[in-house]
Structures are given as C-alpha cells and as structure tokens.
From TrEMBL:
It is a multi-pass membrane protein. GO terms for biological process: amino acid transport. The lineage of its organism: Bacteria, Bacillati, Actinomycetota, Actinomycetes, Streptosporangiales. This is Branched-chain amino acid transport system permease protein. It holds the Pfam family BPD_transp_2. It is found in: Cell membrane. One of its GO terms (cellular component) is plasma membrane. It comes from the Bacteria. Belongs to the binding-protein-dependent transport system permease family. LivHM subfamily. PANTHER family: ABC TRANSPORTER PERMEASE PROTEIN, BRANCHED-CHAIN AMINO ACID TRANSPORT SYSTEM PERMEASE PROTEIN LIVH. Keywords: Amino-acid transport, Cell membrane, Membrane, Transmembrane, Transmembrane helix, Transport.
Length: 289
C-alpha cells in the first residue's frame, strides 16, 4: 500500500508538470492555431533561470521562483514579437519549421552557455518531508501540486471573467470575426503567449528542484505534453490538464510496477488507445463535413 501511495503521489507530481506544459500548448493552439514546437525549451529556459537566480543572485527559493516566472513573461513577449507574430498568418509548414528551428537553436545555445551537464536548483522545501500513510513525501511535491491547482484556477477565472480572457475565447472561436468586431488580434496573441510562457515558468520553477536543469530536458517533456494535448482534444485547455494528469499517473505506475524502460511505451500506448476510441480526443468535438 505504501508503494502505491508513493507512486500515485509521484504520478500527480509528474501529471502537474505535464498538465502545465500541455495547457500552455493547448492555449496557444486554441487561440492562435499554432503548434509551438519550442514550448519545451521555454521550460528549459525557466529551469536555467531558476538555477541562475538561486546560484548567482543567491535568492531564496520562493523569491527565485517568482523571479523566474516574471522573467518568463518577458521571454514569452520576446518570443511572440520576434517569431510568433511573423508567422501568425503563414501556413502551418512555415510555423512548424520556424518553431522547430527555435527549439534547436535554444538547445544548442544552452549547451554553449551552460554546458551539457545537469545543473541543480536548490529548494529548502525539497529537504523537508511529511509522512502520509507511512510514506515520506517531499514538501516540494506539494508545492508542485498546489501551484498547478492555483495556476489552473486563475487561468479559468481569467478566461471566463475578464475582458481580455473573453477576447481570447472569441479569437479561438473565429479569428476573422473577432478582428471585424474590433478585437486587437496582435495584442491578444501577445497576452496568450506570455501566459503560456509563464505557465512554462511555473512548471520549471516547481519541478527543477526535484530533478535538474539540462539542455534537452524540454524535448521529451514537450512530446508528452503534445500527447496530453492530443488526448484532451486540440485547443481544449481543460482536456489537456486532465490528460496530463492521466499520463503522469500512468507513467509513475509503470515505473513503480513494471520498469522505467517501459514507462514511455505505456504513456504513448495510453494515448493511442484513447485516440482509437475517440479520434477527436477525450474532450474534443467531432468535426462533420
């Protein structure tokens, strides 16, 4: 029983990470209709920023985490202005090549600047534990879960209750009609990418103390986040979150009861099984010709 509880907590922690990244991907696709292949590298940048804030600026973990998320807002704005805005009205082929190129450039830039060895981001919360049903659990894992819950709650409130959030939803429904009625497409696009980048920053700030920062950390993370987006239904933020948790729990159980060598196989098998039953995803809607 203790082993099961431990794996479930590990699964919820992994799921929180996948859900945060997948929600950002789903948000960008839903509003801007762009598949951002560089989204995993935004998490990587956030991880290195957290490491730098704690190591070079000697900031305590809470302040380093807040600084990281704030810096990621600026990174997101820069990414939108220099890349996304220029490919917004281009074909999907151009969008794919552009974001994939950014991903490759960022990975190699990280190797040049920081080297290929993992960098640790220290959190005093990572050394503290609580006991749940006889299982020692790091307090940092609860930070991950609470951050995910708070972020998702604020995002849903923002999308439903604010003028900008409603404009984002209108843009997701019909970009041309939204532009006709006066919704500033470029400004809403900027806000969308900034929010998604902040969510990537939150994932990095909470998860890096449990693992480490390294140049290719975003690659597999982004692939699994894409799997969650596909499972949940493209552009459906809630579906991406639920699917992210499902994949995280499935992966943790596979590691605990089968083998870590088969964890990724099981994760993508779950995605394939879902798509065989519901080709449009768990929460997506079938499109009729």
């Amino acid at each position: 029983m203790n082993g099961l509880i431990e794996q479930l907590i590990n699964g919820l922690t992994l799921g929180s990470q996948y859900a945060l990244v997948a929600a950002g991907l789903a948000l960008i696709f839903g509003v801007l209709e762009i598949v951002n292949f560089a989204h995993g590298e935004l998490v990587m940048i956030g991880a290195y920023l957290l490491h730098a804030a704690g190591t070079y600026l000697d900031l305590p973990y809470p302040l380093a985490a807040v600084t990281t998320v704030a810096a990621m807002a600026a990174v997101g704005a820069l990414f939108y202005v220099t890349v996304i805005r220029r490919i917004l009205e281009r074909g999907w082929q151009v969008q794919l090549v552009a974001t994939l190129a950014v991903s490759i450039v960022l990975i190699n830039l990280a190797i040049v600047v920081e080297g290929s060895l993992p960098k640790v981001a220290y959190s005093e919360l990572g050394t503290r534990t609580v006991t749940i049903a006889g299982t020692q659990v790091s307090v940092q894992r609860f930070v991950v879960l609470l951050s995910m819950a708070a972020t998702f709650g604020v995002l849903i409130w923002f999308l439903r209750s604010t003028r900008t959030g409603r404009a984002m939803r209108a843009l997701a429904q019909n970009r041309e009609a939204a532009a006709v009625v006066g919704i500033p497409v470029q400004r809403i696009g900027l806000v969308t990418v900034v929010i998604a980048s902040c969510m990537a920053g939150i994932a990095a700030a909470t998860m890096t103390p449990l693992y480490s920062a390294h140049p290719t950390m975003g690659t597999l993370l982004a692939i699994k986040a894409f799997a969650a987006v596909i499972m949940g239904g493209f552009g459906n933020v809630s579906g991406a979150v639920v699917s992210g948790f499902a994949l995280g729990i499935a992966e943790a159980l596979a590691i605990g009861y089968v083998s870590s060598a088969y964890a990724d196989v099981l994760v993508f098998s779950v995605m394939i099984a879902v798509l065989l039953v519901r080709p449009h995803g768990l929460f997506g809607r079938a499109v009729r010709a």
